From TrEMBL, chains A, B:
Coiled-coil ranges (or none): none
Species: Candidatus Lumbricidiphila eiseniae
Name under which the protein is recorded: HTH lacI-type domain-containing protein
UniProt cross-references to Pfam families, sorted A to Z: LacI, Peripla_BP_3
Residue stretches making up the HTH lacI-type domain: 2-56
Amino acid sequence: MVTVYDVAKAAGLSIASVSRALNNQPGVSQATSQRVAHIAKEMGYEPNDVARSLVGKSTRTIALLVPDIANPFFPELVKSVQAKADENEHVLLLADGAGDRHRVAASMTVLRRKQVDGVIVVATALTVDADELFVDIPTVFLDREGPRLGASVVVNNEAAAFAATTHLIDLGHRRIAHIAGPIDLEVSRQRLAGWRRACSTAGLPSSDDLVVPGNFLEDGGYNVGTHITNPSSACTAVFAANDLSAIGFLAYCADNHLSVPDDISVVGFDGIHLSRYTTPKLTTMAQPIVELGRRAADVLFDLIRGEKSVPRIVLSATLLPGASVASPKAVLQ
Amino acid sequence: MVTVYDVAKAAGLSIASVSRALNNQPGVSQATSQRVAHIAKEMGYEPNDVARSLVGKSTRTIALLVPDIANPFFPELVKSVQAKADENEHVLLLADGAGDRHRVAASMTVLRRKQVDGVIVVATALTVDADELFVDIPTVFLDREGPRLGASVVVNNEAAAFAATTHLIDLGHRRIAHIAGPIDLEVSRQRLAGWRRACSTAGLPSSDDLVVPGNFLEDGGYNVGTHITNPSSACTAVFAANDLSAIGFLAYCADNHLSVPDDISVVGFDGIHLSRYTTPKLTTMAQPIVELGRRAADVLFDLIRGEKSVPRIVLSATLLPGASVASPKAVLQ
DNA sequence: TAAACAGAAGTAAGCGTTTACGTGATCTCT
DNA sequence: AGAGATCACGTAAACGCTTACTTCTGTTTA
């Protein structure tokens, strides 16, 4: 490995001058600066970021903790965060599996040791007393309220779920099931709450038998199909807590010769790219995924630069129309 | 930040002893070792990995370069690589956007500076003379042949594409279109070649008008729908170079009231998890995604540990049956 | 009992940078 | 023309750790 020493020797200078030249800092003449740059390139010198991080304050690294990278929602988010990281000349460390509390703790220990400049924590399962995990390291909570301390960028899940459900109600549906997410996630509870409020506001049932537990995955949505489409349940529509669940349910319907939306309407949540390519195309409450990532990253870099305030940014979701909803065949009087 | 010095002072020891104690190395008594451990914990000491990396050889970090993390194939791969990284007490750096040559070069520079221990490079676009990008840093090419140097873990794309196409031929299809991937990717070319060989082996046409260019994304598959289903093309089946393209095509068919597989059969490639939940369920040539990631990581860590040989591992894909293929309605004599 | 040795601890160098400070040489201004 | 300012560069410390080497104490061995 060629170091500043080597370059310095070759240039007949001290390492200090070389360092200054390479970082075009004042204190070196234009001429030497160019000469050094040339020599460095010639020798194939690359600065060692580890050493640089040790002396400087920054590692130029941020981390993103996601519960499940296999859920298409997150890759889309990753892309947008990474773009911002690039922009700020930082590198992205990905930590998957944040759905599990222990893994979150383990990850944070590793990240702290690695001296990452900051962390974006997404929709993870946290114990109530998780505050200390994030102490001393700039953190933005995304799509989940952080512990007491901490900035956050969230979508108003409750309101969005309310709107999604109301959309179905306006179309004439009177019994609407809900495929919930993992109930230990705040977002799941909020979406459930929104569905419930919409139902009760309209004087419709929102009893527990209309809530079927999902897992935010396709199989979750698939497996509850039987329960929802059971004639005795008499549902004409279903609001899924996320798109993957909705897609699973769609598959169930297809396998069982139920037509969506003729037999049953489906509304998803997330607005993942794939929701534009399901059969039928999914009507979904779309989160501003790219915007979420961007804003979170912006806030994080503000924090990293020393910003003291810890903002709480709330973005809103918008209904993305598809072909998976319709008025119920027989609107009950 | 609490350092070894602080711990040493608190324990009345030298930093050397503290270091030894903390890493349970010989040279400290059992008693002191425990005492130090206790004090360190008490003080909330966390070793600084940056410093550790600077003195030691390793940063305990590996990187994964993927062309497009939004393609569900990659998150599944990421998961498996990350599991292996965990196992080896390494952290995963994700670099997206490796579909672009310039970004690959840029990423490698950053990674080299960051002193990552190794890199897994997936299916990226590389210039022919890209060798030098990876010199001096353990590299495994996944799903793509590396430059001259370099270990690789690949799927026999040509053979797999051949088998997928043959499956359609065996069912009686006589005109089979191919939705290709970006043609500057080796994998795309190989899959195209497999399709072509299958067709010509069976004495079927494989002319260029049967090859429609895709982009490995849903919209690519969707947009070529018109061309493929045009009556004058007379295709009864299509083999897509990846699942996302197939899913896009499925969506096109649904939008245009074409039944899959009654009107046209579709075979995908990749075997992403979502292919189990399309309507109809996609028949696809499934890559052993998890295995690919695992093997690549294994090879990489071997390399990191000093292994000299650079293996070339070839895995094979298997046909995952779905409901998107059938015999053509009218088998031509 | 002296010599050899093992164990526990300390000293200090070094990893590759950045940067505060010091030192001449050249320049500016009155 | 001499004092101060400016410039280009060098010296050395610091970042937080690991580790080769040294030192000291106490134990074993002949």
